[in-house]
Amino acid sequence: QVQLVESGGGLVQAGGSLTLSCGASGRTSSIDVMGWYRQAPGQQRQLVALIKSGGSTDYADSVKGRVTISRDDAKKSVSLQMNSLKPEDTAVYYCNVRETILNRRYYYWGQGTQVTVSS
């Protein structure tokens, strides 16, 4: 099992910046993919960004150029630096990690952290 704890959400004005952090504990040695998703009211949870163990990244088109995902494998953590925030970025942001053991994949979610961008 992997436990995830997120921090860094809050209220920010449009154009501002926030950094979200997520720390993993428990059975972390087999984590290969770490990422962030978000869910706005009435919408489905969507990928924001992910980073693989080799360092390759993937970003949603809506955040490309404004968001940077990074990971610290020594600290078992993943961060999301968000710049030039827009009101449409308002959502609950969830940390997600994938664990791969003997070709089986397990996914874990954090509890979510609210990001609110005021216009």
Structural shape: elongated
Overall pLDDT, averaged? Answer: 96
Helix content: under 10%
Question: Which stretches are low in confidence, meaning pLDDT under 50 for 5 or more residues running?
Answer: none
Series of secondary-structure elements, N-terminal to C-terminal: EEEEEEEEEEE
SS content category: mainly beta
Count up the helices.
0
The biggest beta sheet is recorded as: 7 strands, mixed
Oligomer: single chain
Indicate the proportion of strand residues: over 45%
Quantity of strands, as a count: 11
Task: Report the span from N to C terminus.
Answer: 40 Å
Radius of gyration: 14 Å
Structural descriptors:
119 residues; mainly beta; 7-stranded mixed beta sheet
Model description:
The chain has 119 residues and is mainly β. Helix content is 0%, strand content 61%. The chain has no helices and eleven strands. The strands form two sheets. Strands 2, 4, 5, 6, 9, 10 and 11 form a seven-stranded mixed beta sheet that branches. A four-stranded antiparallel beta sheet has the order 1-3-8-7, with no helix packed on it. It is elongated, with a radius of gyration of 14 Å.
